[in-house]
Description:
Blueprint: H1 2-20, E1 24-26, E2 37-43, E3 46-47, E4 51-54, E5 59-64, E6 96-101, E7 105-110, E8 119-124
This protein binds copper (II) ion.
Amino acid sequence: MRSMLLAALCVALPLGAAQAADPIEILPDAKAATGEIADVEINSMSFLTPEVTIKSGQTVRWTNREEGMAHNVHFRQGPAKTVKGAMGPMLNAGDAYAVKFMEPGTYNYICTPHSAVMKGKVIVE
Ligand SMILES: [Cu+2]
């Protein structure tokens, strides 16, 4: 019985730790973001800078420039997948979305409705 309880604790603890300090922070107002920002434009069904490398604490901001086609940024896998808001809102042309990365790692992302062709990566050092 005791060993079963211990096994349950070992499974539960890492999840609890991940929730305590999220690896990403979604900024409430992307256009007003300040500090060190790497900008990624979205157009022609792609993330125009599909790979960016930043330092932890820096921000990546995505802006959709494609008229008539909504896109988003979705951390479906990797360190941020369990964060509330890991699937970003659909962005119409002119809309932006910004995320501050708090933990080193590789953050692969997709655009949810165009996941077959729209992929990107943020490497946080
Ligand atoms: Cu898309």
